[in-house]
Amino acid sequence: MCHVIVTCRSMLWTLLSIVVAFAELIAFMSADWLVGKAKPLGSEETGGGAGGAREPYRPTLGLYGRCTRVSHMQISRRDTLCGPYAENFSEIASGFWQATAIFLAVGIMILCAVAFVSVFTMCVQSIMKKSIFNVCGLLQGIAGLFLILGLILYPAGWGCQKAVSYCGHYASAYQLGDCSLGWAFYTAIGGTALTFICAVFSAQAEIATSSDKVQEEIEEGKSLICLL
């Protein structure tokens, strides 16, 4: 008989697992890892005449993508163009960024797999006498290590030619130059911290779903068990 067991701790762990996976995936795909130095967009560039106001903008650079402003003949029309600058893996600007992409991709794949499995833990709590919560928690810890390795290696690539073109000649490994860190980098760091929190919290989810109170309700013949 299938028992659907829902507790506050198990549900919170499931939601956090899903949020972490999506946060890391969005950060990985974003072009807002580095925010470049401000570049003026003035009348000389737009052809709008002497009355055109100079409006600075800051292009952004990601692991394999970038966003920049494209000027048209009309001063009122300025489009932001975003897309990958690398058509394949070998064209990623730095070997360190290639390694970062690999580590982050592995970590994110593990997190997405755990997030998918976590949805079914309401019905299935163990496989081959192994707690799914404990296995998923271990996988989240491993994913967190991959994410940390990727985030540590990422700043080592700030001295690549692509980063220098965005951040100025003072940019080098672990030196931002004229750039600043974008929201995607901070999201990746926050997601990594939450990954380890999820790994620890998985043990609490396992305890909650195997408590004496749950066992009592199972013995009473209940198939849907909801506990605070």
Give a summary of the structure in a few sentences.
This is LHPL2 protein. The chain is of the alpha+beta class and 228 residues long. The protein has helices at residues 8-29, 43-46, 95-118, 132-153, 161-167, 183-209, 212-219, and strands at residues 4-7, 34-35, 39-41, 55-57, 60-61, 65-71, 78-84, 126-127, 130-131, 180-181, 224-227.
**What proportion strand?**
15-25%
Counting H and I runs of at least 4 residues, what is the number of helices?
7
Q: Return the CATH class.
A: Mainly Alpha
Outline the low-pLDDT stretches.
42-53, 73-77
Order of helices and strands: EHEEHEEEEHEEHHEHHE
Overall tally of structural domains: 1
Q: What is the rounded Rg?
A: 24 Å
Q: Examine the coordinates and then state which fold CATH places here, giving the name of the CATH topology.
A: Butyryl-CoA Dehydrogenase, subunit A, domain 3
Mean pLDDT: 83
* Shape descriptor: elongated
Major β-sheet strand ordering: 7-6-5-2-10
The count of strands amounts to: 11
Q: Give a short account of the largest sheet.
A: 5 strands, antiparallel
Describe this structure in words.
Belongs to the LHFP family. It is a multi-pass membrane protein. It holds the Pfam family L_HMGIC_fpl. This is LHPL2 protein. The chain has seven helices and eleven strands. The strands form four sheets. A five-stranded antiparallel β-sheet has the order 7-6-5-2-10. The protein has a two-stranded parallel ribbon with strand order 1-11. The model is unreliable at about 40-55 and about 75 (pLDDT under 50). With about 230 residues, it is of the alpha+beta class. A hairpin with a 6-residue loop joins strand 6 and strand 7. The chain is about 50% helix and about 15% strand. It has a single domain (about 5-35, about 90-225), classed as Butyryl-CoA Dehydrogenase, subunit A, domain 3, CATH 1.20.140.
